[in-house]
Structure formats: structure tokens, C-alpha cells
Amino acid sequence: MRIAEISTPELRQPAQDPQSPHHHHHQHNQLISQLESKIKQTEAHPANAPLPHSLPSDLRQIVTHLTQLAPFPTVNNSFKLHLWKLSYRLWNACVDLSNAAAIRSPSSKTSTLNVVKLRHIAADMLALAVHVEGVPSPLIKSASFYYKTGLAWHDLKIFDLASTCFERATDLISKLDIKKLSDAGERKLLLDLNLARSLTAWEISDKNLAITLLNRSKILLFGSPVHFRALANQFLALAKTVLSRTENNGSSFNECLKLMNEALELCEKGLSVARTREETVEIKELKSKTLRFISAVHLQNGEFESVIKCVKVLRKNGGESGDHASLPVLAMKAWLGLGRYNEAEKELKSMVVNKGIPEGVWVSAVETYFQAAGNAGVETAKGVFLGLLGRCHVSARAAVRVVHRVIGEAGGIEGSKIRAKVVAELASDERVVALFAGETVAKERTAMHAVLWNCGSANFQLKDYETSAEMFEKSMLYIPHDTENRVLRAKGYRVLCLCYLGLTQLDRAQEYVNEADKLDSNIICAFLKFKICLQKNDHGGAINQIQTMITCLDFTPDFLSLSAHEAVASRALPVAVAALSNFLNFYTSGKPMPTTEVILTSLSVGTQLTDDKVTTIDADLFFIYVLNAYEMHGRLNNSETQQHLVKSFAGTKACSPEFLLQIGLNASQGPRFNAEVATFALSECLSGFLSSPSPDYQNVALIVRRLITIASIHKGDTEDDAVLSLYKQAYRIMVGLKEGEYPTEEGKWLAMTAWNQAALPVRMGQIDVAKKWMNVGLELAKKVARMETYQACMEDYVTGFEKKFDKPITGESRSQLVQ
Predict the structure, then answer these.
(1) Where is this region: Disordered (predicted)?
(2) Directed axis angle between helix 442-461 and helix 465-475, to 10°?
(3) What are the distances in angstroms from CA 91 to CA 94, 100, 143?
């Protein structure tokens, strides 16, 4: 609101002589003139335009110069009065700008900041001219400017400037004798100033000062109930901020209780001085609110007995505070903490008759009670929920929350049957189903269906088909009977068919799959009918269903593969033969047949069932299958599956080094090169060949050469230890062999390539690397027949190399090669 300006006569300024001795007087007038010019500019500024940034800084500079001339002589009262009026004009201009900003869309933070800066300047101007004759309570008025400016800074969360304003106001008021103040507004200003200063100190984490200021405020109450309530409210507000912290430890609880007890004591004293009914009611409400928060603190701290005491006191007081919605919740949680479930159940049931309890509160209470009581509390939770349905409007969302809580996150764990039974009764109650009628609750209806469906799925995985079927049946209540949901209803019928198949209630299963077929006829319905025929030992019907499957629009050969497996498992060999025959018809007619495993697996199982002597797949046939499967996955660029396939094959009895060699060679050549598979297969077959009593060194040499080639290409680095280790492994293989036993040409290749590996390091000046490779090449050459000439050349080069770089090679220990 605008502050009324003081009505004064026009100020008359006599002409100044520049050479007059009253130079300061001239400066005062000049600065006042500048101030007035800027204030006029502020008053004339359009309300819908942001203030220029230069305006607050220009005014601040003028006021700073004026401050340097203070204090002003007492005789110069007209000057101070003029400054006082200018201060009020600037303040009122700020009020107009703020009001205009509030009417239109909220102004930017920068614009608001500039207005608050102008308010601060107005407060400083008023403080400069504070001692003006003829103005009543000038100190109070100046302090009120600082107080209101401090509140504005506090709202902008600029707490240092807020604190500065509150301190300036406190300094001004400290010059007064507060005992002589009789005006209620002035007394309230003293209290509000202290409370605001305390809150700012709390925000900047100066808690000691905040509490000290609140305690000082006790001498500013003046026996007013309004003051008692304001101070108590402030103590409670600080306590609530402590309570809301994330780190709730013993010290914070004690601090919180101390502040709340202060608020409670102030409420008691305020009641003793209250004179009107309105004052008494307001303080009683605050007292009840404080007691409820004290109860919450005790509850959070695990002091359940204290919670019960507080609740009893609140109920004893009666009135609205005794029927507050939080009391039964607090009491119930406290009784649960004490392990007295009967009393907790009574509190929970009392919520049914209390119409003032919001839906979210009692739903949360039901969840808490059920979480503590477990399976023993499901009947109570159901009774409370159904009782609330008859008492007040319950939303569909609340019903979903209660059902979800009763089921639990894992619907099929311990006590699932008890929970599922209660949920089934809740979900099938007509009043609950009615909550989900209409398009406005479509989202909640979908959520309820999902909760029940997931519960059924969890029980199905536990093979509790009876409970699972019941939950799926109840979920069907939450699927609308319209065209858009035909597919979803058909899905529900198919799942119910599976449940009753598990229960071997074949007629019931047949009914459900027929219903599903009416709504959404597809391959799955045909396959389920096939399974029912198998369980009824109706082989003719099963074979007919195979033909039906083939005619389905969404048919894939995989269903014939699956049908063959099912028939073999049911020992229905004619049906299995029919399924496999139809499967092969697709192959012979040129149609794609993505699943080849079924032929081998069914052949294997079939021969076991017919007591044939052939009980395993021939190793060569298995190898051909693996090789073909490897090739197909290669064309699909599925290298991970290729690795898994080869590693699995390597662990079987059918695997041999020759098979692995073939796989390794295939993987290391051609357009679909696979270094990982090739390295694994060749390494495994190398170990297999070497473990033989009479190794085939021709294949060994081939494998070593191929591994070195793969490692060199794949790693791309001559310094790689993997390549060097392969040469060392070859050297260890050759040690102890007779002349010519290891292929001579392969031996020469090893020696020459190892020696040539040193060429690049020599050129690059990598002496140690070159020395390492020359040493390996020379030692390999010594193990190969008819390499004496090469060996002599190598030794000559080594001798020259040692002289040039002073790096002995031939004298090094040969342990390098046999590590």
C-alpha cells in the first residue's frame, strides 16, 4: 500500500551566492535537486516497462554523497522535511510499480530486484532525515521502511541485505523506550521486526542468533494474545523446518521438541490473557496443531507411549481438534509400534465413521496397517475399505492402491493364497467394479487389470493354477465389452484355458479356448485346442488341429516344431509323425524352414522311445549340423551366437580335434572372418593334437601358422605379446623332436618370419624389441635342418648389431623362450 506523504508548505529556497560562506547548504540543495529529478523520472516511468538498470545506481550514488554531508544541522529542518517527502514519494512510486507488475503478468526477477533496490534507497533517505520536527514517531516510521524492505529482500532470498535492513531498523528502535509505546501497531512492529530478523538468521544457518531473537521477543508481547500467537507460530515454524530435514537423528529430534514445547508454553500463556472468543479459538487451534506435531516427532523418534499420551490430551480437549483426521492415524501407528494390533485395528476402523478424514490419509493408513500386520491384517484392510465405500465417495485410484498393497510387490510369495482370496473378494465386489465404470477412469481401470493380471501371472509361475485362474477371472471384470478390447478379452480367455489345462479340467479349458476363438481366431487358439486333444488322447483330433494350424493367417512353421515336441512328450508318436511330415512338406516345397533343430532332436528322442539301438546322434551328423548352424549365424552377422555354438560343441563328446580344426579354418578365412571363434577353435584343437601319444605335426604346424597369422592381423602390432607367445610355443614344441619330425618348411617359415619381425623395430630405433625378435628367430633357426647358412648370416648380423648398439643378444639366457 502507498504511504501518505506529509502535507507541508512549499519549501522556499533563496538564491545562493556562489561565493557565499554557506557552501554546504548549496551542496544540499544541489543533491536534493538531483534526487528530485530522478524520483520524478521514477514516478513517470511506464508501469509495463522494466526499470532501467542505471536508475537505482544513480540514486544510490546521490544518496551516498548526501550521507557524507550528514549529520545535518538541527536548524536545517526544512531541508530534512524535503528529504523526508522525497523519500515517501520514491517509496510510493515503488508501490505503484509493484502493484502494476502484480496486475499484469509477473515481472522478471531483474525488474523486481530494481524495485527493491529503490525501496532500500527510500529507507536510507528516510533514515538520513529521521529527526524532523513536527513528524510524529519518526523513528518508528523509518524503522517500518527498513522492515518492509527487509521482507522484500527476504522474499528474493537475498538474506544478507534482508539482515542489513532488519539490523538498521533494530538500531533505530533501540533508541526508544519501549515501555512508553502505547500504539498497538507500533508494538506489533517491534515484535514483527524481531521475528523477521530471527527467520532471516535461521535461513543463513545462524541458529543461535535466531533462537536468541525469539527469546528476546518474549519481552515484546505486551500481554497481547495476538503477539503470543505470532511468537508461538514462529517457534512452531522453525521446529517444522528441523523436522523436515533428511538427517533425522537424536539431536535434531530434541531440538525440534524444544522449539515445539516453547510454542506450546506460549499458547498456554496466550490462552490465559485471551479476552474474546475469536482469540481463544485461534490460540486453541495453534495449540492443537503444536501437539499434533509433537506427536509426529515422538512417532518419528519411536517414542510410541508419548504419542498415545498426546493423542489422549487432544481428544480430551474435544471440539474439532479432538476429531482431527491425523489423530487416528497417529494413534494407529503408535499402537502398531507397541505391537498392540487390536488397538491399532480399532483406530483404523474408527476412520470409517470419521467423515473428515481425506481419502489419501485413510488409504495411507490402510497401507501402513497392512504392512505391519502382514497376512493377518488382510481381512481388516478389506473390511475398512468396504466400510469406506458405504460411507463416502472412494476413487478408483484409491481402490487400485489398496488392492496393490494387499497383493504386495511379489504377489506369489508366502501367504499369496490368503492375499489373493481377499483381493478376489475386493475386486469382484459390485461397488468396487462400479468405481471403474466410464471413460473418465479408463487409466485406473487399466491399472487394476494390470495388478490382477500380474498377480495371476506370479501364481501361474508358481504352478498354483487354481489361484492364478481366479485372479485372471477377476481381471476380466476390468476389460470393457467393446470392439476395441476384443483382442484383450480373447487373451484373457486363452490364459484361463492354460490354467485349466494345468488343473487338467479339460472341458473348462475347452470352453475358454472356444470363447477366445470367437473373439480372435488365431494360431494360438488352434495350438491350445491341439494340446487339449493330446491330453484327451484324441490323436485324430490333434492331427486335425495340425491341419487347422496350417490354414491360420498367422501360422509359422515353428508351431509344427512345437507340436512335434508336445506330441513326443505325450508319447503320441502318430501325431509327432504328422507334425514332422507337414514340417518337411514346407521344406520340400521350397518354403523357408528356419528351425532345423527339431528334426535332430525328435529323431534322437524318437529312437529312444522305440527302443532302437541308436540312442545318440552320430558324431559326423552332429558336426555337420554345427557347421551349418555356424554358417547360418554367420550370414546373419550373429557372432556371439557363433561363439556360443562352437564353445558348446567343444564341450561335447562328439567333438574331436579334426572337427575343431575344420571350424577354425572356416572361421579364419572367407568373407565372414571371425577371429574370436577361429582362435578358440584352433587353440582347442592344438591342445587336442598335442595331448595325443603320436601328434600329427603336419596339422600342428598348420595350426601354429594360422594362429600366428590371425594374431598378427587381428592385433596389428608386432610388439604384441600374444604373437611372441605363439612363436615361443612353437619353439617349445620343436624342442626334443627328431630331424624332419616337425615339417621343415614350416620350421623355416617360423624362423624367417620371427627374424623379419625385428626389421621394423631396428628402423624405428626400438633396440630392445628388435633384440627380442632376433633372439627368437635365431633360436628357432637352430632347431630346423638345412638352415645352417641362414643361421650363420643371422649370427654375423647379430655380432655387428651388438657392436653397434652395445646390446648383447646371443649371450642372453634362453629362458626367454621356455617361459
Answers:
(1) 1-34
(2) 170
(3) 5, 14, 14
Burial of 628 (0-12, 13-18, 19+ CB in 10 A): exposed
* Residue 81: all three cell numbers together: 522535511
Residue 127 cell numbers, joined? 533514515
Q: How far apart are CA 363 and CA 325, in angstroms?
A: 12
Residues 746 and 817: their CA atoms lie apart, in Å, by 18
Distance in angstroms (rounded) separating the CA atoms of residues 343 and 345: 5
d(C-alpha 574, C-alpha 540), whole Å: 9
Task: Look up residue 774 and give its DSSP letter.
Answer: H
User: Cell triple for residue 501?
Assistant: 489345462
How far is Cα 465 from Cα 459, in angstroms, rounded to an integer?
7
Q: What amino acid is encoded at 57 in this protein?
A: S
Give the 3-state DSSP-derived string for 643-672, with helices as H, strands as E and coil as C: HHHHHHHHCCCCCCHHHHHHHHHHHCCCCC
8 Cα distance to chain centroid? 66
CB 603 within 8 A of CB 577: no
> Residue holding cell 575343431?
660
Q: Can you give the C-alpha Rg of the chain in angstroms?
A: 47
Alpha helix segments (H runs only) across 520-638: 523-535, 539-551, 558-569, 573-588, 597-609, 619-635
Contact assessment for residue 334 and residue 310, using Cβ atoms and an 8 Å cutoff:
no
- Residue 11's pLDDT is 38
Return the C-alpha cell found at 129: 532525515
Find out whether 630 and 646 touch, Cβ atoms under 8 Å.
yes
Record the pTM. 0.57
Q: Which three cell numbers stand for residue 622?
A: 552332429
Q: How far apart are CA 471 and CA 412, in angstroms?
A: 11
Residue pair 205/159 in contact by the 8 Å Cβ criterion: no
Buried-exposed string 696-721: b where 16+ CB fall within 10 A, e elsewhere? ebebbbbbbbbbbbbbbebeeebeee
Q: Which residues of the chain have pLDDT under 50?
A: 1, 5-21, 410-412, 588-591, 593, 596-616, 718-719, 811-819
pLDDT attached to residue 228: 92
